[in-house]
Amino acid sequence: MYAQMVDTGTSSLRAVDELSPQEQAFQQRIDADIKIEPRDWMSDAYRKTLIRQISQHAHSEIVGQLPEGNWVTRAPTLKRKTILLAKIQDEAGHGLYLYSAAETLGVSRDQMTRDLLDGKAKYSSIFNYPTLSWADIGMIGWLVDGAAIINQIPLCRCSYGPYARAMVRICKEEAFHARQGFDVVMALCRGTPEQKQMAQDALNRWWWPALMMFGPPDTESVNSAQSAQWKIKLFSNDELRQRMVDQTVPQAEFLGLTIPDPDLRWNETSGQYEFGAIDWSEFYRVLKGNGPCNRDRLQTRRKAWDDGAWFRDGVNAYAEKQEAISKAKAA
């Protein structure tokens, strides 16, 4: 998912008898798979957790355009350019869907953006890595969007209605993105030895950050239990990460690429791949703002926000004028 380490305000679950009658009734609705809608009663903690998760997800979609955007003019063919443009446009739309879903919880889009630019909100760590070659664009589609699909398909069944419905369309489009990325990588692997090496180098750079996308190991994910009880999160970080490995390794073998993990091996008993230890110190370092591109990404986002001030002012002025005209006619 494009949201990581979302704070639920608690590190342990409360017993049923510790919940208020309203909270008990609320949890019973969730347990019965009845969607929570904007006008329904919900606990403050549930509302705040959703705002944090959905806004972080939305920020990730918007910032996620940046690593790919600088390759639009450098894509190798006109067809690749148009496909990449369509993908970036999709990601902008995903951000807008998600901001709209978050707004149903009583937070404005402007406030969410200010929280991001002020460092109060985060976006996914994966978008703080550079795209050094055309092969990196393929890896973003194949690995990053592939990981997003694994995590986001369950969100179509999450307990909050507007979020779940937004995810249905987003997941359909993410499936296109993953196929686009795999097609780029496959073309490189079927090309010259130099092109295949370019793909291998990109895989070496993106493999471990892609696995970190799912968040820290379950033993360190103190907020997961509460999110799972509220059905905001349907599977644990480690479960989703294992799905990613089991899905991707055979694809890499088909492409003739080598996963950069000397400890990777198939376990006949479990029917799953075992993989090496992840360097979680890198994950936390990037989350704290010390990744390769953290400062560049935020600086670009701030510039876009500042440059768009005139347009927002114009839209607001027009809306105010139309409202005044409507009131005058009504009078």
Could you describe the 3D structure shown?
This protein is mainly alpha-helical and 331 residues long. Helix content is 63%, strand content 2%. The chain is built from 13 helices and two strands. The protein has helices spanning 21-31, 44-63, 66-69, 78-103, 109-117, 134-152, 161-189, 193-212, 224-229, 237-255, 280-290, 294-307, 309-330, and strands at residues 265-267, 272-274. The protein has a two-stranded antiparallel ribbon with strand order 1-2. Strand 1 (265-267) and strand 2 (272-274) form a beta hairpin. Helix 2 (44-63) runs antiparallel to helix 4 (78-103), helix 4 (78-103) runs antiparallel to helix 7 (161-189) and helix 6 packs across helix 10. The longest helix is centred in the middle third of the chain and has 29 residues, at 161-189. The chain is globular and about 75 Å long. It starts with 20 loop residues before the first helix and ends with a helix.
| Outline | globular
> How many distinct beta strands?
2
Largest sheet: 2 strands, antiparallel
Helix content: 55-70%
